[in-house]
Input
Amino acid sequence: MAKADQQDQALSRHKRKIKWIGILGTLFTLYVLSFMIPHVSLKHFSLTMQNKEQIQDSLSKDSTVLSNNPFELPVDSFEQLLNVQIHERADQKQ
Output
């Protein structure tokens, strides 16, 4: 790096300016061309939604339960089992 810096400083002020204008102009041209080149079109298809009955049949007792609220995060199976045990204990105490 130091060698390249020394070579750059060895150039006259005018040549150094032209060199950097050329480098920056080339980079800017590549940047502008990157927006003009057509992008690859991605082909995608929508997934078909299964019936709720099929989804619920595929779920076992241990797995997470789908809720109707789209913003609710799925519950871990461990957390779900823990909640079931807590509720069973609460029911037994009453």
Observations:
- The longest helix spans residues 13-36.
- Residues 60-64 have pLDDT under 50 and may be disordered.
- Helices lie at 2-10, 13-36, 52-58, 77-93.
- The chain has four helices and no strands.
